[in-house]
Design brief:
about 170 residues; alpha/beta; Uracil-DNA Glycosylase, subunit E; MUG/TDG; Uracil-DNA_glycosylase-like; DNA repair; DNA damage; EC 3.2.2.-
């Protein structure tokens, strides 16, 4: 199964980075398309979107200044199917995408995604103090997967820090 297309453009306010597409996303060609994934609800209730979008609308979030990519492009049923080699290659490609497109904030959708990207083990939710690419704010949020054991309210609360971070970066860029 082929990977799904990134939704990228220069100077995004926010770039979401996931592990890799689900099989459902691979089948549909849209990010966070698994019906058990709570991504679209989370970003709406966190104040990032004016309404709850559907996966088929993922490309329209570029109009809001939000993009999508993954550390690995190959769809799988679970992240544990990703190989070490895929992570190594994906890490290189992701760093290049961030350097090329220069998003103001990169939101890693899951601690494990950021661990693979940064090669760090001690990671906390929110803005990271030591960044891999210093010009970009690196934000770690819980995975939106329905398998996450955190209460949805806790997850939304962490994501709800993003609107003010984005607003602050927009003020600095003006």
């Amino acid at each position: 199964m082929e990977g799904i297309l990134d939704h990228l453009k220069e100077d995004l306010d926010l770039l979401f980075v996931g592990f890799n597409p689900s099989v459902r996303s691979g089948e549909t060609g849209h990010h966070y398309a698994n019906p058990n994934n709570r991504f679209w609800r989370i970003i709406h209730e966190a104040g990032l979107t004016p309404r709850k979008y559907q996966p088929i609308e993922d490309h329209t979030l570029l109009e809001l200044g939000y993009g999508f990519t993954n550390i690995v492009s190959r769809p799988t049923k679970a992240a544990d199917e990703i190989t070490k080699e895929e992570y190594i290659q994906g890490r290189k490609e992701l760093k290049q995408k961030i350097k090329t497109f220069k998003p103001k904030v990169v939101c890693f959708v899951g601690k494990g995604v950021y661990q693979q990207y940064s090669q760090k083990r001690n990671i906390f939710w929110g803005v990271q103090d030591e960044r891999v690419i210093p010009e970009t704010i690196e934000f770690v949020a819980p995975s939106s997967s329905g398998l996450v054991r955190m209460k949805i309210e806790e997850v939304i609360n962490i994501y709800s820090e993003l609107p003010s971070i984005i607003e602050e970066t927009q003020r600095r860029w003006q």
